[in-house]
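SEQUENCE AND FOLD
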Amino acid sequence: MNKIPIYIRSIIVLLIVNLLVFKAMSHPVHITALDSLQTILTTAKQDTDKVKVWLEISNRAACKDTVYSLNTAKSALLLAEKAGWERGQVLALKRIGDIYFFCINDYQRSFIYCSRSSAIAKSIADSFDLAVAYNTIGAIYENAQKYDSSLTYYRKSLELNKDPDRQTNLLGNSGNVYNDLGDFLHALDCYEQALKINEELLSKNNKNKADSLTRLGLLLTIGDIYVSMSQYNNALENYQSALKITEILKRKDLKIWALTKIGTLYNIRKDFANAMQYYVKSLAISDSLDGHYRRSNILNAIANVGIATGDYAKALQYADEARDIVEKKNDLQLLPKVYTTLGIVYTKIHDYPKSVAYYLKAIEICETTKAIADEKDTWEALSNTYVLMHQTDKAFAAYRHFITLRDSVYNVDKVKELTRIEMEEAYGRKQVQDSLVQAKKDVAVQLHIQRQRWAIYGGFAGLALVLLLSFVIYRNYAQERKAVTAITKANKTISEQKQVSETLLLNILPADVADELKARGKVKAKLYDNVSVLFTDFVNFTIASERMSPEELIEELHTCFEAFDNIVGKYKIEKIKTVGDAYVAVSGLPNANPSHAADMIRAAIEIRDFITTRKKEIGDNTFGIRIGINSGKLVAGIVGVKKFAYDIWGDTVNTAARMEQTGMEGKINISSTTYQLVKDEIACTYRGEIDAKNKGKLKMYFVD
């Protein structure tokens, strides 16, 4: 789903804040040009008027002259403090905070000044400016990815604000935060509340372009949310409503935006005919506008439709045109996407050298710009091309790159899947609740009608009355039973889906970490003093891959790693990750385990024995293995908020890797630290001091 970039949000917020702050001054000064402001400043008699002029000068300078803008705002603050004018202090402090936030990106100082502004505003019961300050503080926390605090301040600002424009803005901000978190249900609720307020504003003045633009943005964003929820009909309805607004406003640039989104929606649904229709309409309009990013994006999208439909000539035509545009502009964001599309096209027409050349160009740019998601997709496509070229070594090397990058974004997809399941649960509950409400209404209506009939036909014979009452009772009973059955079925479905959610999350993270993530929305890194780390690596993996097809190779990897997962699970050892053909696990986290070293060695013995047995069974169609173990302390946690993964860091981890690298096939190589923990219960053979890369000479032992 397309999210609004933070810098665009900041610009919009700045414009709104400045407009509302100066609109709200109790005695606004009428000014035009900067010279006029300087004249007013020299002639103004009241300090309050001078403060307002200083602030207006600062506002006019904006971010074009940051130093001047900041100095004039600070002059206004000094004068307001000297005059004892607290409202002026509130405005000046807020203005300084805005400059640090929007112009200098010094969020810490912005927070300090906005907090001072909010404190004074609160002391003088200035709810308007207090709400303004809270809004900026919420934006500061959002920028720092402290989403709980951000939502708290947006909520505080919303409670204080009665102005519809501001309420729309704040609900949109809250929706953006939920959107970033992947909590689409709450994001949708915020956006729809904002849309309802916007509809009320438009009903009062349907010619207001600003309100129409706001409605357009909200409809497109809500459409994006529905796409993420796979509710494509609702998404299409919102996109088409947005398209009608662009035609009323006669805004070609925004019309392209809406048409492209509709085309992409049809593309997702594999309705390529309609997708192409909307892309072509969008492309025709872009011819009259100057916007390389917009046009090249559409061309690349059309090329991908050509690939999907097998029209490779058309795909090549549009991809080449997109490449010409982005190469001239040296657009490093779009170049990898276009190069990858060209690589896929040339693979389809069996021109493999050109295909590989474009893939490698895309990868080189992605490595420079850190575009991990794009690089991942390109490595996968390159691996598939090498398979078709019968270059097994290169195919597997490319696939290893793909797997490594995929691991870094794997958790994001899983979290999105969990969010989708939770949304479906909520949607199902709402459907059941709506059905029950309607059923109760139907029963009430039927009872009312029935009572009227009783009044009309009160003179009927007693037997007829008894029969009629019996019919009503039976029907009510049947309806109630049907409702109970629906509730039972819905509860069972919700329970099953919740279990799926829990299982998926526990496959990604340790149980304690998963609980912390669900409770707080983030996970704090922790230091573990007594743990053991295991590294395994397959011996002569490249040679084995030459004897096996890519499919056989991946299947054998899966079989081995599945067995490893079962073994470490038996000893309550936490699997951390796989990197290519390497396997990493830790004993003693997140829950402390006094026998962590011994348990890890027992698990390692079972892993070694599994590989030994498998080699006897299938020979060269599997691999040899080296295993290394070290014990000590490490840090474990999740880095980042979006594309996160649970991982471990520290010298203990590095030494464990060295134990594996300096080991031997079929042997379990442990460090002196681990040996001291298990020497009384597990027999080991001293190997001596062996040189390890970047570690010097280390004492090592083989487990007997």
Notes: The longest strand covers residues 624-638. The radius of gyration is 33 Å. The chain has 27 helices and eight strands.
